[in-house]
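Minutes, structural biology subgroup

Action item carried over from last meeting: produce the structure token record for Ribonuclease (Microbacterium galbinum). EB confirmed the sequence was re-checked against the source entry. Recorded below for completeness.
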Amino acid sequence: MTVVSPSLTLERRILGDSALIISLDEVGRGALAGPVAVGAAVMDAAGARRRVPEGLRDSKLVTERRRPDVAERATAWVRASSVGWASAAEVDEVGIIRALGLAASRAVDAVVAQGTSTAGAVVLLDGNHDYLSAVHHSVLDVRPVIKGDRDCASVSAASVIAKVARDAHMAELHADYPQYQWDRNKGYASTEHREAIRTLGLSPLHRASWAIADAPALF
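Output recorded by EB:
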């Protein structure tokens, strides 16, 4: 299989007219347990002139062993970065799309707190649906980009930063709920995870609206 390397083609075109790009990508959308997370990576014209960090890809295309190193270099490469979160309880309360919007809004607010201005900025959101605008408190220029995490280097940076942060969080939660093996499956529907749910029931950190019925195993 040919692995596509992300580029800065779209970012450079946008930065010809705009001061900043805030790129967003989610992880944990399909998990049965734990939060959903949205990474944010801020790119300016100076950053877009620098070389894309070696090995940067959509987080799904980077091995688990290599991800922390790639995420560290991606964090150093972009102007600012953050991860926004929405809890499993929020997923149950408002649904996954609204929860993604909450996490994305919190990620944007976090880079704003670091000094990023949204005035005149373009928000690149991986996917084909804008789940941010209905939630965020200010008007943003949001542009969904299909396969953005694969093709756009700044979105790839957001992807791997969020993935490493969420994986580390799930490994920490494993200490309190080891029977679900979240250190291995990160809350997704592995065979062992599903069997533990059948045997022990749901923890307080499961998405109860999702995990009651059997789901196909992902591992």
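Discussion: The two ends are 20 Å apart (CA to CA).
Next step: EB to file the record with the rest of the batch.
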